[in-house]
Amino acid sequence: MAGNTFGQLFRISTFGESHGIAIGVILDGCPAGLPIDLDFIQSELDKRKPGQSKITTQRKESDTVQILSGTFEGKSTGTPIAMLIPNEDQRSKDYGHNVDVYRPSHADYVYDAKYGIRDHRGGGRSSARETAARVAAGAVAKLLLKHHGIDIFAHVTAVGKINAPNLESGNIAELLALREANIVRCADPATANEMIEFIDGVRKDGDTVGGKVSCVIKGCPAGLGEPVFDKLHADLGKAMLSINAVHGFEYGSGFEGTELRGSEHNDSPIPNPSAKGQSFLTITNHAGGILGGISNGMDITFKVGFKPVATIMHNQQTINAAGEASEIKGKGRHDPCVVPRAVVIVEAMAALVLADHLLRNKSSKL
Amino acid sequence: MAGNTFGQLFRISTFGESHGIAIGVILDGCPAGLPIDLDFIQSELDKRKPGQSKITTQRKESDTVQILSGTFEGKSTGTPIAMLIPNEDQRSKDYGHNVDVYRPSHADYVYDAKYGIRDHRGGGRSSARETAARVAAGAVAKLLLKHHGIDIFAHVTAVGKINAPNLESGNIAELLALREANIVRCADPATANEMIEFIDGVRKDGDTVGGKVSCVIKGCPAGLGEPVFDKLHADLGKAMLSINAVHGFEYGSGFEGTELRGSEHNDSPIPNPSAKGQSFLTITNHAGGILGGISNGMDITFKVGFKPVATIMHNQQTINAAGEASEIKGKGRHDPCVVPRAVVIVEAMAALVLADHLLRNKSSKL
Amino acid sequence: MAGNTFGQLFRISTFGESHGIAIGVILDGCPAGLPIDLDFIQSELDKRKPGQSKITTQRKESDTVQILSGTFEGKSTGTPIAMLIPNEDQRSKDYGHNVDVYRPSHADYVYDAKYGIRDHRGGGRSSARETAARVAAGAVAKLLLKHHGIDIFAHVTAVGKINAPNLESGNIAELLALREANIVRCADPATANEMIEFIDGVRKDGDTVGGKVSCVIKGCPAGLGEPVFDKLHADLGKAMLSINAVHGFEYGSGFEGTELRGSEHNDSPIPNPSAKGQSFLTITNHAGGILGGISNGMDITFKVGFKPVATIMHNQQTINAAGEASEIKGKGRHDPCVVPRAVVIVEAMAALVLADHLLRNKSSKL
Amino acid sequence: MAGNTFGQLFRISTFGESHGIAIGVILDGCPAGLPIDLDFIQSELDKRKPGQSKITTQRKESDTVQILSGTFEGKSTGTPIAMLIPNEDQRSKDYGHNVDVYRPSHADYVYDAKYGIRDHRGGGRSSARETAARVAAGAVAKLLLKHHGIDIFAHVTAVGKINAPNLESGNIAELLALREANIVRCADPATANEMIEFIDGVRKDGDTVGGKVSCVIKGCPAGLGEPVFDKLHADLGKAMLSINAVHGFEYGSGFEGTELRGSEHNDSPIPNPSAKGQSFLTITNHAGGILGGISNGMDITFKVGFKPVATIMHNQQTINAAGEASEIKGKGRHDPCVVPRAVVIVEAMAALVLADHLLRNKSSKL
Question: Are strands A81-86 and A75-76 parallel, antiparallel or unpaired?
């Protein structure tokens, strides 16, 4: 119940601190017989790793993943797949300043309050470094989904007040190519340039900025999700909200949809001209592919909001462990904006949720 | 894994269909010795029950709750508390029209796809009637929280495009009195009147409209929530997204916060003039009382967005179970806007999450 | 975590006290489309119900079960099946004697120690009355198993030092007829008579006696059970040990097998003359149908030991709640020997374990 | 649900195959602030490791454990403790013989049936090598229990038909010294010699033999265990039955107790002369320290039966993967009798169960 496990049938447990020996994950419940493509897993990690561009943190980690168990002759065996990612570039001495001083909007204080002890080096367990383990496991989930014809695509659709157009109706392979062609991971090239320039300016100010990531899932069959508490969008929401810095989640019509009337919001089903691919077709998709918590076969769409990174290169007022007024200046190596690296984390968590519900749905009927 | 259970240590399992014999809940894990105030539980159900005003559904249910187990001489015994709410006013014949026709933006189609069988009467398990069971259990959670000095308050802050001012810094008893003084459950009287008038017009149009509910939790000690997947706001988000019609969740600065810079968004801690009550004090509260997934002792704030109810009194295009074009006209008794009745559901789910994490936190340290 | 739930995918949660309003169960995870035969469920409860013969307790309960949810037109819908069994013959006044005095070998003291409060009437939650809820849910599990060709049979194989011959290789329908032809539920008529006479004598002495129940499961396919912690026999063991009064569990060769050499104990596989029915065939079956925690397709066999009932009609030394020496005399209505009524509880728990692993195994491979 | 996780609040997840790169464990839920004595953990592993005497397998593994996360400056931090044990002496070529042939009484066949793929090297995941990970985690559980005054002691009480006297009333430190003074780990020196001589003879015959391990837990407070499904002895039983080769579990009076009358079996409580240490005192302890599934403060006692190891150095009849008759000769390096090495596994699993229930009990009352 200490909450380092996610998923029911396709289940991951992660471990590791920012400046410890390694981080890693056990993936339990992957069906046997799935080809495990290590290169693909590594390529996913490469999209999240630090130091990949001028607009990400300069911490250098190769994030080389090693599979310790659960595969045999290149395939999953049904036993736990453990994966290890050693930490290489820990500059723990950079963090001497936060031993006794609570960094504003960081988790330092609450760890002390909760545990009475705190690994202050790089934020310890509260660091987003933990998400590398999720990306590794999420890559295996993607392989399972791809085997079942399900594809996931996310990209950056907002940085600060700069918004990208909605592209979710496009072809995933093309969107992916467009996205990976720029360092901010927005599939619209013009907006991407604007975003990059803005982030670079923010970085030079020693400041940070928030943003949004949008995600679309294509090829999901109808029937995934459980009807009451474990609604598909509720599990997606929890997954996204568990990512560091996320402050909001909406799916389908989202918060905007709350302003509409039912007569505007309802999606009218129409006869499906082709039984292939989709078994359900509606004119609009305000439902975001989910009705009553269960996928309906249409595209699943959702959006995730990330607050600005808390570490800035400015002097800030704060308190120390004794509760006295103190001052702190940003140190360490951090991102001016997390969304470019968060794209693959969003996809990984979505993949984990879908894979889990794919397995859970096997017991729905006789 | 069929997902009718919520919570880990303070755990509920609900059952029942809209037009079955009864709905109910087992609450397992309530600590022994808690006085169980049946009148309070009933009063919470009364706030959710149908037929309470002109802007709610006209279905008549007394929603009288009976406790079947788990209490002795007025106190919890540590064994499961089962509660039963009989269904009284099932007009199942009203639902003959959706046996073979899929209502737009309802779960009819996905239940058929998932289960191959569907209790079509009133939406069966997909009906929001299930939430009465949550409110009953949530009332017990509130009693436990109150014992620990934690209070929860939610109210309607938007109906369509009508927005209420932010009142979360106020006194909960006063806000509650203001909220319960009007039928839309908005604590700002002027906005409440505007909302009521608007909903009544929408109802006369045979239409529906969405809205938002905002919630604040006061008196929560620092340390609740688990740091990785079971972050306090991730569990709150899942809880809210599991409520019928919810399409979005945000906490603290929410989606608006994603547009800010770190230097604007960071909450600076300041020395706490009074050790009483709060152990942590920040000038602003963009964090919404939660850092790194763990409560910091400040007010916890979040907002929930509800789409418009799908049942409208208009003719709508749809398909039947054979996949052919069909037409459907709204029947049955439904709400023109769910938020007035959803307020107590939001509070109940929040209470369940907090109670669970209160118990989970007991094992954080030696 | 209060432990009133059993199973993962086919999951039950029970509630209710011996002398409360009702006991009951929510069964979550039953696949949709299963015909739910209420008469069969009731007939299973009738085998467990009190007052059925001179060698069982004289408490009179019809144990009439009502299904509250989860079925539609006679079939399961995939939503939770709630079942309720009202308590009818509570003579709570019989239990005034144990309000402040701890009955020897009963749970009175530990409930006070654990909870600080105790529903003393009839033992409250610690009463074996709770097992009626298990039998109701187990009956549904049996229906699911029967649909998949799996049959379960248990009978009494020991009362005190009287032992029955091993009959597990027989035909289940015939064994069942033999078992139900006598009130002690032993399929060997001669031993049954001896057991009945013995129990009746013990009863007249105001005393009680223990016994054993043996169980065989036929038609189970290979592959059920998970290889490490959730071995099929480990889950069967936990299920049996969770039944009131059980002090021991063994499967296959059991404790006797520990005295053998490997060369005697190993079961040699032989070519299977008929592919029908069984895919694996060994000359002996010391494995009890389970290898490495996973069913191998042979008969699954295990044995359960029940201690004598603690309530006797003798004067006994004990202590009171103040820790002082006290005396207690047996009152209330109790069984001189539980095994005749426990047979169907053993079968129910075995059915729940098998049904759970049947569903879990659906995710083993692609 | 693939079952590689054990425990609820104090929870382990293990991974790794016999001849893979490493085995390991994530321990989640250890309270923060516990001193983690790595030397103690290693010393526990040394008691389980292969090659330690002439009566154990000759596979050579140092079983050196490395802690990857979850500790800081020698103490637990409340985050997951990951431990890694590299495999060093994998002679996978020894296992070429079981690629296509099913070894009698091994799990080869069922893995193929369940997963359709099998890591045949050394039995893969079905090997008892996995238990090293349990011992590492169990050592941490022991440290937590010792902090709360709870001690666990197990020793070998039967090898084949050679039985040791009951010593459980003794002092644990003295029993431990006696046990560790001989290679069979029986605390009675005379019986130990007899057992060693017998096992050595069995080994020379190329054969194997089963045995029993008895365990006593001292200092456990009253109140641990949950009253219905998660009875303390039910969880102990499952834990023991999940250990490789275990075929039986009994606690307190066990199977022998089933032959007694209630008047013989009941344990009469007596006033406790000293409030110190034990809060409950009975003349006899047929209950094995557990009433109604909850610890009563007396010594907790149980016994575990291990079947003989399946690998023998004899020619054996079997079948191959095509279902045809085949012959196999034992190869590989195996134990003639597992109980000497199993003693510390039994203790580890008992410690994990107790630690889990210690944390769970924190929520029993207000």
Answer: unpaired
How much is the pTM? Answer: 0.97
Nearest to A224 by CA among A363, A348, A349, A347: A363
From first to last of its 366 residues, chain B has per-residue pLDDT tens of: 799 999 999 999 999 999 999 999 999 999 999 999 999 999 999 999 988 888 888 878 899 999 999 999 999 999 999 999 999 876 656 666 678 899 999 999 999 999 999 999 888 999 999 999 999 999 999 999 999 999 999 999 999 999 999 888 889 999 999 999 999 999 999 999 999 999 999 999 999 999 999 999 999 999 999 999 999 999 999 999 999 999 999 999 999 999 999 999 999 999 987 655 457 899 999 999 999 999 999 999 999 999 999 999 999 999 999 999 999 987 767 789 999 999 999 999 999 999 999 999 999 999
Alpha carbon distances (Å) from A274 to A270, A294, C18: 11, 22, 59
Q: Can you tell me the distance from the alpha carbon of B334 to that of B313, in angstroms, rounded to the nearest whole number?
A: 10
A333 is in an annotated binding site: yes
Which residues does D contribute to its contact with A (CB < 8 Å)?
Answer: 1-2, 4-5, 8-9, 11, 13-17, 20-24, 26, 28-29, 32-33, 66, 68-70, 72, 75-82, 84, 114-119, 124-125
Beta-sheet strands, E only, within chain B? 5-6, 11-15, 22-28, 66-67, 71-72, 75-76, 81-86, 151-159, 162-163, 211-218, 246-251, 290-291, 294-295, 300-306, 315-319, 325-329
Q: Chain C contacts of A364, Cβ < 8 Å?
A: 31-32, 78
Searching chain A, which residue's CA lies closest to the CA of residue B12? A229
The neighbours of chain A, by the rule of 3 or more Cβ pairs under 8 Å, are B, C, D
Question: In the structure, how many helices (H) and strands (E) does chain B have?
Answer: 9, 16
Contact by Cβ (8 Å): C341, C44:
no
Nearest by CB to C28, from B5, B8, B124: name it: B5
Give, in order, the Cα–Cα distances in Å from D91 to each of D19, D215, D225: 8, 34, 43
A–C CB contacts, 8 A cutoff, strictly below: 40
pLDDT in tens, D99-157: 889 999 999 999 999 999 999 988 899 999 999 999 999 999 999 999 999 999 999 99
Strand spans (E) along C219-314: 246-251, 290-291, 294-295, 300-306
| Structure-token match 């489309």, residue found | C33
Rounded CA-CA distance B359/C247 in Å is 32
Residue B234: closest CA among A234, A256, A258: A234
Q: C118 a known binding residue?
A: no
| pLDDT tens figures, C59-74 | 788 999 999 999 999 9
Residue A347 phi/psi, 5-degree rounding, is -60, -40
Task: Report the neighbours of C using a cutoff of 3 or more CB pairs below 8 angstroms.
Answer: A, B, D
Q: How far apart are CA C106 and CA A245, in angstroms?
A: 53
d(CA A186, CA A209): 16
**Domains contained in chain A, CATH given:** 5-363 (3.60.150.10)
Annotated ligand binding at B113? The verdict is no
Work out the burial of residue D112: count CB atoms within 10 Å of its CB; fewer than 13 is exposed, 13-18 middle, 19 or more buried: middle
Chain B residue numbers touching D359 (CB-CB < 8 A): 362-363
> A168-205, pLDDT tens digit by residue?
888 999 999 999 999 999 999 999 999 999 999 999 99
The Cα A290–Cα A353 span in angstroms is 14
* Residue D179 three-state SS: helix
Q: For residue B11, give the chain C residue with the closest CA.
A: C1
Q: How far is B214 from chain A (nearest CA, A)?
A: 13
DSSP β-ladder status, B151-159 and B211-218: antiparallel
Is C353 annotated to bind a ligand? Reply is no
